[in-house]
Amino acid sequence: MSFLDHLEELRWHLIRATMAVLLAGVVAFLAKGFIFDVVLFGPKRADFVTYDILCKAAQFLNLDESFCFDEIPFRIQSRKMAGQFSAHMWTAIIAGFIMAFPYILYEFWKFISPGLHPKERKASSGFIIIASLLFFIGVLFGYYVVSPLSINFLGSYQVSKEVFNDIDLASYMGLVRTSVLASGIVFELPIIIYLLTKLGVVTPEDLKKYRKFALVGILIVSAIITPPDIASQVIVAIPVLVLYEISIFISRVVIRKQRKKEAKEKSLTKTK
Fold first, then answer.
1. Containing domain of residue 236, as a range?
2. Does residue 212 fall inside a structural domain?
3. Domain assignment of residue 19, yes or no
4. Could you read off the pLDDT tens digit of each residue along the chain, which spans 272 residues?
5. 8 A C-beta contact, residue 141 and residue 183
6. pTM: predicted TM-score of the whole model, two decimal places
7. For burial by CB atoms within 10 Å, which of 103, 146, 182, 256 has the most?
8. How many angstroms separate the CA atoms of 176 and 164, rounded?
9. How many domains, the chain?
10. What is the distance of C-alpha 231 from the center of its chain?
């Protein structure tokens, strides 16, 4: 295929992926009550499952019981005429993207798979399932861990009792959206390292060498997306550190297979 033919093929893959996002977005748009009242505003309620677990854990370990509360003292308001409708539209699009993520990966895979060798296609057959699973785990982590920690801290923080927190709807939605999507992308780290290793950009030695810097970077990211308390940062940092170690293992396996393949090809060349 020529370069223009490849562009045409890519255009149709992008169109189909976009249509999938829009169709899933329409479903999310129609499910307004469930999406907003149950899902998005769930972390605002004191009976949210994360707060309940943390409260019981704190009581069991005789730690600070700051997660044992009856109410998060803030209200959500919309100060723009089209604020609620705009939030509804953008939420539907983001929800559509999350729900359609496996299909988006499928279209991406269909575009690149013709350029792979049969063995490479076979070895990467589980790409869509694994990448989708990691993304959804990250989304759930962002929703059940990062979002509640941030909402509880920022929503109850006061510089003075004279100031009441009236949180704008766009600000609240932005926090939840960022927490969920950022976590989903971060949990794709093993897939990203796998691809970079296959391309020869990184090696297990590089990942081990820069582990200390990665640790500092992970702690900085955890400090940015979570409240400024040690417990919250540790809760977020631990899964990311585990993902980094898994990425090193994956990179090592990829390099080992590549070296075996190269050694086999050399032996065949010498035989000939």
1. 116-156+164-266
2. yes
3. no
4. 666 776 777 888 899 999 999 999 999 999 999 999 999 999 988 888 888 888 888 788 777 666 677 778 788 998 888 889 999 999 999 999 999 999 998 888 888 777 666 766 666 667 788 889 999 999 999 899 888 888 888 888 778 888 888 889 988 998 898 889 888 888 888 888 888 887 777 888 888 887 888 878 777 776 666 655 566 667 777 888 888 888 888 888 888 877 777 777 777 666 65
5. yes
6. 0.82
7. 146
8. 21
9. 1
10. 21
| 73 in Cβ contact with 156 (< 8 Å) | yes
DSSP bridge partners of 77: 168
- Tell me the three state secondary structure of residue 168: strand
| Sequence-distant (≥ 6) Cβ neighbours of residue 104 within 8 angstroms | 17, 20, 21, 97
Q: Is residue 190 assigned to a domain? A: yes
Nearest CA among 121, 110, 114 for reference residue 13:
110
Domain membership flag for residue 223: yes
Task: Encode 190-253 in three state secondary structure.
Answer: HHHHHHHHHCCCCCHHHHHHCHHHHHHHHHHHHHHHCCCCHHHHHHHHHHHHHHHHHHHHHHHH
CA torsion sign, 188 to 194 to 199 to 205? positive
In the chain the first and final C-alpha atoms are separated, in Å, by 34
